[in-house]
Amino acid sequence: MASLLPLKVGDTVSFTKTIAESDVYLFAGITGDFSQMHTNEEFMKSTPYKTRIVHGVLAFALGSTASTMIQLQARAQIPSLSYGYDRLRFIKPVYFGDTLTAKYTITDLDEEQLKTYASVEIFNQRDELCVVATHILKFIALGQQA
Predict the structure, then answer these.
(1) pLDDT tens-digit map of 70-122
(2) Domain ranges within the chain, ordered by starting residue
(3) What CATH number matches the domain at 12-139, 3.90.660.10, 1.10.10.10, 3.40.50.970, 3.10.129.10?
(4) Is 133 helix (H, G, I), strand (E, B) or coil?
(5) How far apart are the C-alpha atoms of 69 and 103, rounded to whole Å?
(6) CB 80 within 8 A of CB 108
(7) Is the four-CA dihedral 143, 136, 125, 93 of positive or negative sign?
(8) 72: which residues sit within 8 A by CB, 6+ positions away?
(9) Is the dihedral of CA 82, 96, 130, 124 positive or negative?
(10) In the 8-state DSSP scheme, what is residue 11?
(11) pTM score, two decimals?
């Protein structure tokens, strides 16, 4: 029987974006997270970071964009949705002005459950790994109950 999954192990895509101050403040406004770690430059000068840092979840969100991109790249004929993320870790701080690249790579397939598993890695412009996670993408066969 042919696979319904439009992706295969090893498929990969990447997405790059420079994180601007406006991105951080828009994200803070959307989420309500105005922590001084992200918004108070003078306070942050007294910390080991020496400057404001980007919300970890904002940096991580670039992986969601990459997830959408891989589905478009595969020209998926059946709809899918994010089933969740496992083992999310913020490894290195991300600073205002950093250019991040989200790399999304399919690592495993579950044909029976119509799920794919992917490694999500977010690197800064110095090729330092900043964020990692495992993403589960669930495909919905047409006519199937959710």
Answers:
(1) 999 988 888 899 999 999 999 999 999 999 999 999 999 999 999 999 999 99
(2) 12-139
(3) 3.10.129.10
(4) strand
(5) 11
(6) no
(7) positive
(8) none
(9) positive
(10) -
(11) 0.91
